[in-house]
Amino acid sequence: MRLLLTNDDGIYAKGIEVLYEQLRRDHEVLVVAPETEQSAVGHAITLMDPLRVKPVNRNRAFFGYAVNGTPADCVKLAIKELMEERPDLVVSGINLGANVGINVIYSGTVSAATEGTVLGVPAIAISINSIRSPDFEPAAMFARSLARKVAANGLPLRTLLNVNVPAVPAGEIKGVRVTRQGVTRFVERFERRVDPRDSVYYWQCGSTPLLEEDGDTDGSALAAGYISITPIHYDLTNYAFLEPLREWVFPRVKSR
Ligand code: MN
């Protein structure tokens, strides 16, 4: 297959390099990724500034193109301008830090994959549950096997696979669970500081504690030591509320 590989930790991150080395064994891979870290930018796109593209070498060989934009910008620019033919699959990762539950909304990693599906290309987002230099190899190998499965089976329209991998040696991963998106969320905290001119400022920080949740959720699978795969799409409609909403917007006149 022809693959477009991107991330949100930036083109110089370790996770994208390890993933590139695995995927290029089976596929033709083009890397187009942000020049600097773009974690938690969500699905933002750049309209007020020009986008510049720079070739990047790693290990003395051409690695890919760096873009001074967001992950979604990278996918758009790659598919519309940089690639001669459309990719068969967009892969985004390997992100440093889990993208489960509500965090999917903030995630640049997931948004890059979502952008692939917006443009009609199937996509995989892959993250590892650690923010401190984990071994990316097990996650990269899993992404490679999953890419093969997507090649064989395809994905439904506008659907991507959001994959989260425990940060443990391959032998300690308990297995794979197909999950739904849970309610795990980033628990924020603000550090109040004072700058040298005596003005107060705040620095947002926090973490994503994995909770034991009911049912087969992404976060609980990850907490239990499993790789989670969640099929997601960007339709935000609450279908169950369509009819009740119609009822109270257009109340029916009772007959007689
Ligand atoms: Mn990130």
Task: Report a brief summary of the structure.
This protein has 256 residues and is an alpha/beta fold.
How are the secondary structure elements laid out?
Elements: E1 2-6, H1 14-23, E2 28-34, E3 53-58, E4 61-67, H2 71-82, E5 89-96, H3 103-106, H4 108-118, E6 123-128, H5 137-153, E7 160-165, E8 175-178, E9 187-194, E10 200-207, H6 218-223, E11 226-232, H7 242-249
Parallel strand pairs: 1-2, 1-5, 2-4, 5-6, 6-7, 8-11
Antiparallel strand pairs: 3-4, 7-11, 9-10
Bound molecules: manganese (II) ion.
CATH architecture assignment: 3-Layer(aba) Sandwich
Structural class by SSE content? alpha/beta
CATH topology: Stationary-phase Survival Protein Sure Homolog, Chain: A
Total tally of structural domains = 1
Strand order of the largest sheet: 3-4-2-1-5-6-7-11-8
Q: What is the subunit arrangement here?
A: single chain
Q: How helix-rich are the residues, as a percent range?
A: 25-40%
